[in-house]
Write a structure and sequence with these properties.
Layout lengths: L3 E8 L1 H5 L3 H10 L3 E8 L3 H7 L9 H8 L4 E9 L1 H9 L12 H5 L8 E3 L3 H11 L3
Antiparallel strand pairs: 1-3, 1-4, 2-3
Helix pairs in contact: 3-4
The structure holds uridine-5'-diphosphate (UDP) and magnesium ion.
């Protein structure tokens, strides 16, 4: 069951501020992801609240939305066979302390909140998240 998919990837503020944008993009490209669309933007807290609405009841929701809107982010559409799962594997666990060797979060993540990258977690959410940032 292999098929070409697109997924939404975000290089989060902690990574952009440390100038890790190009290194992280190289990792994606070396793993066979094509960067179909990309833009560097800073979003309002209200937009972060919409993006992370699924987490609105969580105790970390407010801090998460403050954080995602705290500085520039790089938003990308990545394409590859089974891109959604492949990206989740390459990112590693949400908590960098639990992430496997070689994953982006193991390499660059600072903490469970400042974990350097976002990636869509399902086909449905990938569609919603790509639409959110790239309406055209
Ligand atoms: N997060 C946090 N504290 C937690 C769990 C998550 O600050 O205890 C943040 C973290 O930045 C994470 C984001 O909320 O990437 C979304 O959480 P999710 O569980 O969806 O993790 P992900 O899909 O990013 O691995
Ligand atoms: Mg998630």
């Amino acid at each position: 069951m292999n098929s070409t998919e697109q997924t939404l990837s975000i290089i989060k503020p902690d990574a952009v501020v440390r100038n890790l944008e190009n290194q992280i993009k190289e990792i994606f490209k070396n793993k066979g992801f094509k960067i179909i669309k990309e833009k560097k933007i800073q979003i309002e807290k209200s937009e972060a609240e919409k993006f992370y609405k699924v987490h609105e009841t969580k105790p970390f929701y407010n801090d998460l939305c403050e954080y995602l809107s705290s500085g520039p982010i790089v938003v990308m559409v990545l394409e590859k066979e089974n891109a959604i799962l492949a990206n989740r594997e390459l990112m590693g666990a949400t908590n960098p302390k639990e992430a496997s060797e070689g994953t982006i979060r193991k390499l660059y993540g600072i903490s469970i909140d400042k974990n350097s990258v976002h990636g869509s977690d399902s086909i449905e959410n990938a569609k919603i998240e790509i639409e959110f940032f790239f309406k055209d």
